[in-house]
Design brief:
21 strands; 4-stranded antiparallel beta sheet; Dipeptide-binding Protein, domain 3; 4-stranded mixed beta sheet; 637 residues; alpha+beta; Dipeptide-binding Protein, domain 1; Peptide/Ni-bd
């Protein structure tokens, strides 16, 4: 039975903290607005963190490290319940026109902007979203999330305004100067203080799922103007309208979130204060600090899991976490390599266009063995057989991966040594005729700062060479830069075969097509000159574009996108690998099934709705709670 006793004896914890140096340092309270969050019996959730926030200006960043704060201090038009359903947020209701090109939102009464001390600054009004749209789409502000106004959901005039403002900054980038566009030309407008209107260039059935993204969050125009370049520079230069206020933040020391006394939905905020203490060794010392009673959550690393589970104190507190389908990991073939001659890029270029060669590699990878690096007890739960993770999107209870012929892959393991060798033998004859020399060098880089990736790559190297033979291939494992890996390796094409990832931006299959589009092109297949690869690419583009035009029937839309995804799997353009590893195993006094949930965006980072318990769940309690949450019925014996 799950331990349900709420944490009542917070006084003891306060006394412990007073004896433990940096864990006890609290900010001075300059007024009494936030007294409740610091009372002796306040419910306080204590954690450690090792990755520091880089930007508090939520309109320019979408980094998960930054949105841990944003998700808790800024509310959006829509919210989520604990099962991933969209529910009213700052908008209490909405409607759209039949063509889904005009969306009207009606704001709640009494929503307040407050400062870091809880003082009321003013009302949240419809113009706050207009101001945000103008800011995000002004190229001078260098936001990394502007693309959400022109990807999937296309807000009228947004991209045109961005292009115009960018041309003023970088005229050399434009052969023809864009025509002048005013901020008022962007299709976001306030009919009155409580009525907000979005106008889109084309129908968007998933528009509601876009609205909790950082670039669609509100900002007070008056405050933004008065703050100037100081907006978001520190916690004192931001206004808050969410469940919590960032009351204190000293980088590389501590973050303190306190319950917002003016929050519109404060009755659903059960934790009074969240204290996050910085420690670069958080991953190493977390369990020890949890055992000492200093923190309420610790991540248990895979290499220490077996040892901790053998110890009664720890085994009673350790449990898994919800599989994270917000990111998909997959291995991509590079069709336009640009690495040094030592690793024979031209030979790879000839080999990779051969479909049987790609299929031989696909069938040689035992993903469960490779993923046991991260999940030693049940690696199968991380395996992803499609690009789109199962559980990411569904209609009326039917998962997207079960639509059309994509269902063939969703329930099938591609690992098959016999098939791998058949494909190898077919490929070998064809490759010899194409002038390929053997063994074919396969450059597989990894990021040394990512825990487990090195071991994973060497595991796959062993699998490939054992299955296909070292006379056929030679896997070259190389450590990339631990800083700037994305630009230095992936985006520069300095790999043959490498793990990449993509995260969903909204709730629609279209979001999972972006890594294969020309603008993002993880595999550089749009640059490939081979006629067969070009043909597959062109067919995929047509199928994807046709699917995106279907806006009046979700089932047909999903069927069409599933057909496009099936195509790239049929031709082994990509090798699906896993869903996001996430926290894996933890000791955590929060019940994650109480918190908001979404397979995209920031919802899962919120503390709203969570209670703090005396103890963490054990494995059995967690499994029972998970089955209830996921509506999984026990099989009859």
């Amino acid at each position: 039975m799950m331990k349900k006793s709420l944490k009542a004896s917070a006084l003891f914890m306060v006394m412990v903290l007073l004896l433990t140096g940096c864990y006890a340092k609290l900010p001075d309270i300059e007024n009494h607005t936030l007294d409740d969050a610091y009372r002796s019996d306040a419910v306080v959730y204590n954690t450690l963190y090792a990755s520091e926030v880089t930007n508090l200006n939520y309109l320019v960043t979408s980094s998960p490290v930054d949105t841990v704060i944003t998700a808790n201090v800024i509310d959006a038009l829509v919210d989520y319940d604990n099962e991933g359903n969209i529910v009213p947020g700052l908008a209490e209701s909405w409607e759209c026109t039949e063509d889904m090109c005009t969306w009207v939102f009606h704001l709640r009464n009494g929503i307040k902007w407050v400062d870091y001390e809880g003082n009321v600054y003013g009302e949240v009004v419809a113009d706050d979203w207009v101001a945000a749209a103008e800011y995000v789409n002004n190229a001078a502000n260098e936001t990394d999330c502007q693309y959400m106004y022109c990807t999937g959901s296309v807000v009228k005039g947004a991209q045109e305004y961005y292009d115009y403002t960018r041309s003023l900054l970088h005229p050399e980038e434009y052969d023809v100067k864009p025509k002048k566009v005013e901020p008022s030309d962007i299709g976001v407008m306030a009919y009155d203080d409580k009525t907000l209107i979005y106008k889109l260039d084309k129908p968007c059935p998933f528009f509601l799922s876009v609205l909790s993204y950082t670039s669609y969050l509100p900002v007070s125009r008056k405050y933004l103007k008065s703050s100037g370049t100081m907006f978001g520079k520190d916690y004192k230069n931001v206004l808050y309208n969410g469940a919590y206020i960032l009351h204190y933040f000293q980088p590389l020391e501590k973050q303190i979130l306190v319950k917002n006394p003016n929050y519109w939905d404060r009755d659903k905020v059960y934790i009074d204060r969240v204290e996050n203490v910085y420690d670069s060794e958080a991953a190493t010392i977390g369990v020890e600090r949890y055992e000492e009673g200093l923190i309420d959550k610790a991540v248990v690393s895979a290499d220490k899991l077996e040892r901790y589970l053998s110890m009664r104190f720890h085994s009673d507190e350790i449990h898994g976490t919800i599989p994270d389908c917000s990111y998909s990991y997959f291995y991509v073939f590079n069709f336009a390599p640009s690495y040094n001659e030592e690793n024979e890029p031209e030979n790879w270029r000839k080999a990779v266009v051969n479909e049987n060669f790609r299929k031989a590699i696909m069938c040689s990878i035992d993903r469960e063995e490779a993923l046991s690096v991260y999940e030693p007890y049940d690696p199968g739960k991380l395996v992803n057989n499609t690009v789109t993770p199962p559980g990411a999107i569904s209609i009326d209870g039917k998962d997207y991966t079960k639509f059309g012929k994509l269902s063939y892959y969703s329930g099938r393991d591609s690992y098959n040594k016999n098939d791998a060798r058949i494909y190898r033998d077919l490929a070998k004859r064809q490759l010899k005729e194409a002038g390929v020399t053997f063994p074919i060098k396969i450059l597989m880089p990894y990021n040394p700062s990512v825990v487990g990736w090195k071991q994973e790559v060497f595991t796959i190297k062993k699998q490939l060479e054992h299955s296909l033979g070292t006379d056929f291939i030679e896997v070259v494992v190389e450590a990339g830069s631990d800083t700037g890996f994305l630009n230095a390796v992936q985006r520069s094409g300095k790999f043959s075969f490498m793990k990449c990832r993509w995260g969903a931006d909204y709730e629609d299959p279209q979001t999972w097509t972006e890594p294969f589009e020309e603008e993002d092109d993880y595999s550089f297949w749009h640059q490939c000159e081979d006629e067969k690869v070009k043909e597959v690419c062109e067919i995929w583009e047509k199928q994807k574009d046709n699917a995106s035009e279907i806006t009046d029937n979700e089932n047909l839309r999903f069927e069409a996108f599933a057909e496009a995804e099936r195509l790239i799997l049929d031709h082994a353009i990509v090798v699906p690998f896993s869903i996001m590893i996430g926290d894996g195993y933890v000791m955590d006094k929060i019940n994650e099934f109480e918190r908001e949930y979404s397979s995209y965006g920031m919802a899962k980072q919120r503390y709203k709705g969570c209670h703090l318990y005396e103890d963490s769940m054990d494995m059995e309690e967690y499994q029972k709670a998970y089955k209830e949450w996921a509506h999984i019925e026990d099989e009859e014996e």
